[in-house]
Amino acid sequence: xxxxxxxxxxxxxxxxxxxxxxxxxxxxxxxxxxxxxxxxxxxxxxxxxxxxxxxxxxxxxxxxxxxxxxxxxxxxxxxxxxxxxxxxxxxxxxxxxxxxxxxxxxxxxxxxxxxxxxxxxxxxxxxxxxxxxxxxxxxxxxxxxxxxxxxxxxxxxxxxxxxxxxxxxxxxxxxxxxxxxxxxxxxxxxxxxxxxxxxxxxxxxxxxxxxxxxxxxxxxxxxxxxxxxxxxxxxxxxxxxxxxxxxxxxxxxxxxxxxxxxxxxxxxxxxxxxx
Length: 275
Description:
Layout: H1 2-35, E1 37-43, H2 50-60, E2 70-76, H3 78-86, E3 93-95, H4 100-106, E4 119-124, E5 126-129, H5 140-149, E6 155-158, H6 164-175, H7 179-184, E7 188-191, H8 194-202, E8 208-212, H9 213-219, E9 226-228, E10 237-243, H10 248-258, H11 260-268, E11 272-273
Parallel strand pairs: 1-2, 1-3, 6-7, 6-8
Antiparallel strand pairs: 3-10, 4-10, 4-11, 5-8, 5-9
């Protein structure tokens, strides 16, 4: 009887040890999976080009599937993403549509979080877009006259307080001395971000919209549907990124954004290269 009891105890101990070892292995696998997930917070205007850059990054580096488990991207206005990061959202890279928010993060002393030096990865271009009213005018003067004479037309811009493209659009309209008039006439429709501004115009819910040139490149918009504004006519949309924490993959991906291959993706997508 004692022998049977001893054998049973031994079997139970071995089973318990195996279960503990399995639990450790599963936890280790989960940790590895978490470590292999690159979490990117990206400005809404990057939703068309960033998937292509990620695909190019994997292909150009000839990375096996097990090297990168996943690259998880969250798109929103730069201001909204900045607020999330300040609140503790666990991103590894923040790709903003301006320089202000990454610069603020670099000056932030958050306990247990490392913010690296910001880097400029692209320069955005602003365009006026319409699918309901062909834009035959090509000169700035004729463009402004069109917007002012079409008194029933609605115009959308992204929220200037949150979206850098919206801030540049507002500055452009102010420089043309028509922003206040459009507001008083209640003809300005404010979108949450540049993605929403584009959708308002694309669906015909508004007549005109100040959008990112990259969005128009992505859909192969017809020449008569848009005018690319001269970069000197509005504040430069220099887009900065910043690495958060100590992820080697985040640093490597950031380097790829600045490489010749990465910059070529931006050029093809309607951006100007980083200066």
